[in-house]
Write a structure and sequence with these properties.
GO terms for molecular function: N-acyltransferase activity. This is Apolipoprotein N-acyltransferase. It is found in: Cell membrane. The chain crosses the membrane at residues 25-44, 50-69, 81-100, 112-137, 144-165, 185-206, 213-234, 511-535. It is a multi-pass membrane protein. The protein has 542 residues and is an alpha/beta fold. The protein has 2 domains: 25-236 and 518-534, no CATH class; 239-505, Nitrilase/N-carbamoyl-D-aminoacid amidohydrolase, CATH 3.60.110.10. Helix content is 44%, strand content 13%. It has helices at residues 20-42, 52-71, 76-94, 98-105, 110-138, 143-163, 186-206, 214-228, 230-233, 271-285, 309-318, 374-378, 415-419, 446-461, 507-515, 518-534; strands spanning 247-257, 290-292, 325-332, 340-346, 355-358, 397-399, 402-408, 431-436, 465-469, 475-477, 483-486, 493-502. It has a 6-stranded mixed sheet with strand order 5-4-3-2-1-12. A hairpin with an 8-residue loop joins β4 (340-346) and β5. α2 crosses α7 and α6 (143-163) packs across α7.
Amino acid sequence: MPAPAAAAPARVSPTSPPSSAASGLLRLLGFGLAGVAQALSIAWPGDGRPLWWLQLLSLAGLVWLLDGLRAQGAGWRRAGLHGWVFATAWLTGSFWWLFISMHTYGGLPAPLAVIAVLALAAALGLYYAVACAWFVVRGPTGRVAGAFVFAALWTLAELVRGSWFTGFPWGAGGYAHVDGPLAALAPWVGVYGIGAAAALAVALVARRLPLRGVMPTALAAVLLAVVFVLPNLVSPLPADARGAQGTAGTLQVALLQGNIPQDEKFIPGGGIETALRWYAEQLRDAKAQLVVTPETALPLLPRQLPAGYLDAIQERYGQPGSQQAAIVGLPLGDGPGTYRNAVLGFMPGSTAQPYAYSKHHLVPFGEFIPPGFRWFIRMMSIPLGDFERGGLAQAPFVWQGQRIAPNICYEDLFGDEIGANFRDEATAPTVLLNVSNIAWFGDSVAIDQHLAISRMRALEFARPMVRSTNTGATVVIDAAGRVTHQLPRLTRGVLEAPVEGRRGLTPFARWVAPFGLWPLWIAALAIVALGAVFFRPGRTRG
């Protein structure tokens, strides 16, 4: 009896769908790539430009992929995992340069530095995981209602990241729009409001569910017009604060950029002497009305400086009748627990007591050590420790008719805290000043990202932002968020430029000064709650 013929091998059509496992991996890859695009949109590698359209494409990819999970009936865990992959890829790509500070300058072994960056991104990504899971499982299926809920959830995740555990909102999506059409929203709703508007617009367009009927289509069109067009047609400032009427005069500034390498900055006989000598020369010879050094330009406490060093600066700028002033970055304090990251201001009549501003929002791990993490700090050979916090709304430096509000390093990341200075229009700053040293992060995209952050603050408050940094970006930004003067990065030099102070309060300044970011919190939570109560998903998911 002949043996039965062997079964022919199954033929796989080129158009056959991939296996479930392969499909799942491809989907995870898609979420990861969308997250990388989000990171690149804040500052494109190479030229450092923010790309607003790439941020919209990244969000569109996220919405499209989340709708795909919804169509498959994904549950909380699966939806959360995919949202977490998106956020972890995005945040790792946004602040990968933390590796440089920990490994290159801190001496932390490279594998541990990589793990530390990934762990931070993964922890912060949990906020977005919850937001994505809620949208997939509990979000409305209707296009307009769903778009509002997506925008609200996105905003809540951004707000949580920017406030919980002192907050680390670096790379928030709204910063990509500093050169885009949504930048006109900055003086109305700030960077988080821009992020919400971008999420709303993208969700209205990108969701796969079709619009049914004339009314939803018309509503979506009106919403898009309001988001993209109306802010560009309406001035955020009252008539008496626009144009020439809104000027507070012009100030000539000299911004010093020492370009002291970070691995030499605190070395006796090396970077310390170089910094003390170069900054002393520039402070002595400057001709501008206001001379500004970077953060910790003088890397020693006053009592550690050479005899007569600060006295010479006081004598140079403190003499009655002088037309010059200086703001100098240095640490202050008498011992552990009293150290402050600060600037001193010298102007005519200040010989007895110079102006002082102390940093309010301290950097976790850099300027204060979170409970339970001292072991991590001990693994790195860099001068880190517990600093004392300055007050929230400190007095401005008043000079030549300008009220200059300093902020130090990443303090300009917190627009609500800067907004506390605008509670009284009569004493509100006319110029914002940032002094920074981000040489810790090398010649990386961190310089470009920080510049975009400062430009957004200028837009939100309609104030010029002046930046003096160790390695870049040392710039003058006008009240419209445009860079008007800039030094090349990683060079030693002096940027001399005019700065036009401005007065008047933007709508953002008017509401963020008394209420902080609470209006955004309340609006976003209300939208999510209404979506959960009145617009239930089409079917229950596990």
